[in-house]
UniProtKB/TrEMBL annotation:
Signal peptide from the UniProt entry: 1-25
Segments forming domain Leucine-binding protein: 38-384
Protein name: Branched-chain amino acid transport system substrate-binding protein
Membrane-traversing stretches: none
Pfam family, one: Peripla_BP_6
GO BP field: amino acid transport
Organism: Enhydrobacter aerosaccus
Keywords: Amino-acid transport, Signal, Transport
């Protein structure tokens, strides 16, 4: 009886706090099973097309979170149903599908798709109907001008300035810091945006850009591009890649018997790059990896274990949670906290609540009161070491015994 009363009191406290961390940490036994008409949450992911390798990670993470939320109290005591459609990695398809989700399928809420171009397409539809849209992977914050759009990943309002400097700080810590750089990028909007930022910041810090080159999104033939990279032979190669593009580039360079001295990849499919023989010591963007200090955050260890189990069953090449999966986890944590905090499914009420409150997520404490509804920047760098990604920079986020390795 005392235990039951304590559980009831804890439920009341959790309801009052309305934070993602509290919900994450609470065992489902403390929550009443949701019942009644499902709350339908609609969204798209690039289940096919050139972004599919990464979108598959987001799909698994979303399914984990829907099960977690339904294992607690659902949304306002009602079960959550995720209505997921395939946007085929095409912004125009995403636009049409979000229109369908809202007007035909009559979903109650929406979640954002993966990648900047589909997100921007979906955002226009969300704005037309006044829907809150939480997204985790739009790399151009200044384009998020819609008042009810919220980021689930801590890019910060100016990642084109903050992130290149994190990378350059890391490179400057090496015994032989790079003096020259090649900046190679997809023309995909967020990659191109970050590439231009990397070029600008490198030049400001005295690192000479010997080659700046862009290629079409979804390109698969990197032979001619690899020849240009080899000819430039810079100390550092920065690649604004998505999906399998980094693997394809490194394979093309390997055929030319050329290995970059140090190389960074923006948004690659994490598994294929980590496991590739050409991926050794590759650097990449991240916000979380399954090691300390991240595993000490509430619920992270449990979610990491669940992701590994499901990703293994789905035959993903790299069944380890990372920033891509964590971004989708964060999306659902934010939506759950906002629905509970506002005690409503009304989009205006949810948006108003988010602007006034922090949410504890897998990424830590996020706020939405800065430019473009962004909070502070929290970019990290990871490196492939022994076919696993390890956070190496900033140093305080590296696991014990892990450090940045040069070429």
């Amino acid at each position: 009886m005392i235990e039951r009363k304590g559980a009831w009191r804890r439920r009341r406290i959790l309801a009052g706090m309305m934070t993602g961390a509290a919900a994450l940490a609470a065992p489902s036994i403390l929550r009443a099973a949701p019942s009644g008409k499902p709350v339908r949450v609609g969204g798209t992911l690039s289940l096919t097309g050139f972004l599919a390798q990464t979108a598959a990670i987001h799909k698994i993470a979303a399914e984990i979170m829907v099960d977690e939320i339904n294992g607690r109290n659902g949304f306002l005591g009602r079960p959550v149903e995720y209505v997921l459609l395939d946007d085929q990695s095409k912004p125009e398809v995403a636009r049409s599908l979000y229109e369908k989700l809202i007007t035909v399928d009559k979903v109650d809420l929406i979640q954002g798709p993966y990648a900047t171009a589909p997100i921007l397409a979906a955002m226009g539809v969300a704005q037309r109907y006044g829907k809150v849209m939480i997204q985790s992977s739009m790399g151009i914050p200044k384009l998020q001008t819609y008042d009810r759009a919220f980021p689930a990943t801590p890019f910060g309002p100016e990642p084109e300035k903050t992130y290149p400097n994190v990378i350059l700080d890391a490179m400057a810590s090496l015994p032989n810091p790079p003096k020259t750089i090649v900046v190679l990028s997809s023309k995909f909007p967020s990659a191109q945006f970050m590439a231009q930022g990397m070029r600008d910041q490198a030049e400001k810090r005295g690192v000479k850009v010997t080659l700046y080159l862009e290629y079409e999104s979804g390109n698969r033939d990197f032979g001619a591009i690899a020849a240009r990279v080899k000819e430039a032979n810079a100390d550092f190669l920065w690649v604004g890649s998505l999906g399998l593009e980094s693997n394809q580039l490194l394979e093309a360079l390997h055929k030319l018997d050329y290995k970059p001295k140090n190389h960074f990849h923006l948004y690659p499919a994490p598994g294929p790059l980590a496991l590739s023989p050409d991926g050794d010591k590759a650097l990449c963007s991240t916000f979380l990896e399954p090691s300390e200090p991240f595993l000490s955050r509430p619920g992270v260890r449990r979610i990491a274990g669940e992701f590994k189990e499901r990703a293994t069953k789905a035959n993903l090449p790299y069944a380890i949670i990372d920033a891509q999966a964590a971004g989708m986890v964060s999306e659902w944590q934010i939506l759950e906290a906002a629905v509970n905090g506002a005690n409503s499914l009304d989009d205006k009420a949810i948006a108003d609540w988010l602007k006034k409150h922090r949410v504890e997520t897998i990424y830590g404490s996020l706020r939405f009161d800065g430019p473009y509804n962004h909070g502070g920047a929290a970019q990290l760098i990871k490196q492939v070491q022994d076919k696993e990604w390890k956070v190496v920079w900033p140093k305080e986020f590296a696991a014990p015994g892990v450090s940045l390795l040069g070429a």
